[in-house]
Amino acid sequence: MGRDGSANREAILDAAETVVLERGFAGAGVDRVIAAAATTKGAFFHHFPTKLDLARALIDRWAEGDRRHLEGKLARAEQLVDDPLQQLLVFVGLFIEEADEYAGEIPGCLFASFSYQSAHFDEPVHRVLATSMLRWRSVLRAKLDDVCAMHPPRVDVDLDALADSVNTVFEGAYVLARAVGDGAVVGAQLRLLRTNLELLFDAG
After folding, report:
1. Whether the model pTM is above 0.85
2. What is the pLDDT of residue 204?
């Protein structure tokens, strides 16, 4: 462990994330997190004086990972193809590949977990949630603008709403997968999303 205890802090966050995804934040008692992290109460409270401090650290870390995931997948799609519509379809396809790789597992989303138990959190946590969702809208809307310039949609469509709809499929697929206990749901929903985008913008 580093002299600053960073490794122990990350171990606590890793354990807490797993427990929250399994039981929700309300069910993630401090003692349960400490046991899962194989650490001590002293170490836990050194890094996180309150459970709310833990929540802030968890959502900040998840949001940063989500940002890297979003921007990284889009950058990869832009490297692979030049046409903006194909970039959007490849972007979804990269997530399909990832979903298929982990289809045997039931995915979870900290954003969903925190949103459902919003009364447990303060304004900074809510702000991170909102900022992360709006980032998806902004990034996807910019790509949709490029798509429309080359491939006008077959019907009139609100591009902000469409960007939100794409994100809703992603988030909703994770919720549905957990509800029915079938990780393959994620890939199936993303494939349908890709088909709908192809139909909307005439990818042929």
Report:
1. yes
2. 63
